[in-house]
Design brief:
alpha+beta, 3 domains, Membrane-bound Lytic Murein Transglycosylase D, Chain A, about 160 residues
């Protein structure tokens, strides 16, 4: 008795066919079919990472009526504070600019108190010293050196 073996598509093990109804032989005959290797996929494109992830476009800013009032109040407050600060500094510099001055050269052993007393004989010597220090941008009242030229305010009287 002969038995035939045939291969089914997709199976690796042969299906056995017995014409007499049962297994009577000890050998199996294979029909050799040419087997092609499965084609390998070739990549034509390669993935390139992005430099930075794309951000969705932001929605336009919408201000409510209350938001517009808050922004307006903040701008008004900023203008008011800046005008007060700048106005005070302008007022402080205007007084010094209109004050007439003269120059005095510091002599050996001379103090700022003596210079202020000579400049304002009938006035308050402490305020005169403060004005001399401010006019000459001195670090303090005791930092005088011989030969230094000082700007001294001129007082009437």
């Amino acid at each position: 008795m002969t038995s035939y073996a045939r291969r089914s598509a997709g199976h690796t093990r042969p299906d056995l066919f017995f014409p007499s109804g049962g297994p009577a032989m000890s050998t199996i005959a294979y029909h050799e079919l040419p087997v092609r290797p499965a084609p390998q996929r070739q990549r034509h494109l390669s993935a390139v990472p992005l430099a930075a992830p794309a951000q969705p476009a932001a929605a336009p800013l919408r201000l409510t009526r209350r938001g517009r009032i808050v922004v307006f109040a903040a701008v008004a407050l900023l203008l008011a504070v800046s005008s007060i600060v700048l106005g005070a500094s302008v007022a402080a510099t205007d007084d010094a600019a209109t004050l007439p001055t003269t120059t005095v050269q510091v002599q050996p052993g001379q103090t700022l108190w003596e210079i202020a007393a000579e400049a304002n004989p009938g006035g308050d010597i402490r305020t005169t010293i403060d004005e001399i220090v401010r006019l000459n941008a001195l670090p303090n009242a005791s930092g005088l050196k011989m030969g230094t030229t000082l700007a001294v305010p001129v007082y009437e009287g």
